[in-house]
Amino acid sequence: MPELAWGQSLLDGELVALGGIVNQGNYIDQNAYAQSGRNQFIDSALIHSRVLPLGRYHFGLNLQWQPASEWYAMTGASLGNNRAGFAPWSELDFNTWSALWELGYAPADVFGLGPGIYRLDPFLAQSDGATGGGLSFNLQQRLGSLSPFGWFGRFGFGGQEVSNGAAAQIGTGFLWQGPFRHLLLERTSNDLVGVGFIWSQPSATSQTIYHENEYIVETFYAMQLTPTLRLQPDFQYVTNPAFNRDHDHAMVIQLQLVLAW
Q1: Residues 6+ apart with CB under 8 A from 58
Q2: How many Å apart are CA 242 and CA 236, to the nearest integer?
Q3: Contact, 226 vs 215, CB < 8 A?
Q4: Which of 164, 169, 139 shows the shortest CA–CA distance to 152?
Q5: Which positions of the chain have pLDDT values less than 70?
């Protein structure tokens, strides 16, 4: 269970506090264009920055403050080193923790392009006796006030000993909502096409790193078959897989069927 927490709204919703077992990825580093592997990109580096140590399954605290409609601030802290499937007190380690901050600006219109959200995410963490920090940028922007196109990007770097899988990473891409809505049935207005790109440098690990620079291109088409049923073919091409010495490229083809209710 990645999250089991109590949330409390204060000051008419301006301030929100959350405590318990907290999945910080549900709050920090969100992006409407690349957030869920069930209906958008599947690669984890496009769902969240692999630089940020976003705690989950651990004891955590999250505070959110929105003093104005276009500005907000957030902080999240996690403590422990337990794995998924183990209680947070089973491996409670006060030398393993992370603290993250997020400052967000969400203007209703950016140079006539429409709404966008721009986030700054610094962090500080300790793991295996090493302490370090890093910084990530998270951006999303509609490309026209009535445009079906959107762009997103996550750009980050951090200390190799404390980053979550990547010491430096770029993840960016474009989405197209309803690509065939004027050619086929009107239901295709809920369809989604996306293409994304990742450049990544792995952080310190016990595994042997064979390639310092890994590149991935992903594309998908999410077809809304019924109001509750979605079919999504997905293709990824990986160049220089970081932990594979036998191949300089790999291809991944997936077909997932998502039923939501």
Answers
A1: 21, 22, 78, 79, 80, 81, 82, 88
A2: 15
A3: no
A4: 139
A5: 182-188
Using CA atoms, how far residue 231 sits from 59, 175, 190, 234, in Å, is 36, 17, 12, 10
Which residue reads 């994304």 in tokens? Answer: 196
Is 215:239 a contact under the CB 8 Å cutoff?
yes
**What is the count of structural domains for the chain?**
1
Locate tokens 């990109």: which residue?
41
pTM confidence score: 0.87
Give the separation between CA 185 and CA 37, rounded to whole angstroms: 25
What was the pLDDT predicted at 142? 95
Residue 163's domain is classified under what CATH number?
2.40.160.180
Domain encompassing residue 232: 4-259
Determine contact, residues 237/217, Cβ cutoff 8 Å.
yes
Contact between 239 and 223 under an 8 Å Cβ cutoff? The reply is no
Question: Nearest to residue 24, comparing CAs of 167, 123, 161?
Answer: 123
